[in-house]
Amino acid sequence: MQGQQSTTRLTAHQQHAWFVGSGLLDIHPKWSIFYDVQARRESWGADLQQNLYRIGLFRKLPNNQLLGGGYAFVHTGIYGELPVKYPFNEHRGWLQFQTKQLFSKGQLTHRYRAEFRWIDPEKNLRREIRARYMVRYQHTWSESENIQWYTAVYDEVFVNMGKDVAYNIFDQNRFGVVMGRKFNRTLSLELGYLNQCIMQRSLTADGRNKMEDNDTVLMSLVWNWSIKKKTP
Fold first, then answer.
1. Yes or no: is domain 11-226 CATH 1.10.10?
2. Reported pTM
3. Which of 11, 75, 95, 101 has its CB 3.0 to 4.6 Å from that of 69, i.e. a possible disulfide?
4. HEC-encoded secondary structure of 169-217
5. At residue 218, what are phi and psi to the nearest 5 degrees?
């Protein structure tokens, strides 16, 4: 890993590995519980970057739309060439609207998320609002009964708002490409590449922005299941 200097910013190029487990639990024809657990690791998985735990409730709307929200807890460690001074926690409320367009061999998803963040409450509490927008296109290559192979490409941009935001109104951008295998109606596995570009909230001693350019291996297990009523 090497940091590259310019007149305006200091950039650290780093290698990460993210492991994700997520899905929906259908509890009603129109309501689902959402869960998301992520282990984000630095140095190709050797060291802690972040642990994230997210849960929420979604309402299914007409035309393949979802509306919901929930809570997330995030723990960030000391990692990389531009580390924070100490590990810290974040409590996060979130609201989300998602819409999906279906095609013969693919689907286009738009996701809009607002996050209400309480960062580092034990030492130096910061309150921020973050807006996120993701667009993702998924193309199915082959399908046999419930089994299918697909490729997905996506991009997501993050913007910070609030009085505690100084140097990182642009928070980060994530661009990813994954190959997926859907094993049945409920279980899918995705492997791919993610580039995470983060603008840090503080400056260097000589007044330059600090940025992370993180090349990331991504493995994601998606498990959607339902609670079925027993027939009498």
1. no
2. 0.91
3. 95
4. CEEEEEEEEEEEEECCCCEEEEEEEEEEEEEEEEECCCCCEEEEEEEEE
5. -120, 130
Q: Is the distance from CB of 41 to CB of 34 less than 8 angstroms?
A: no
What DSSP string runs through 80-133? SSS--SS-EEEEEEEEEEEEEEE-SSEEEEEEEEEEEEEE-TTTS-EEEEEEEE
End-to-end Cα, the chain, rounded Å: 62
pLDDT digit string (tens) for 144-188?
A: 777 899 999 999 999 999 888 988 899 999 999 999 999 988 999
* Residue ranges per structural domain of the chain: 11-226
Distance of alpha carbon 161 from alpha carbon 159, whole angstroms: 7
Model confidence over 79-111: pLDDT tens digits?
999 998 899 999 999 999 999 999 989 999 999
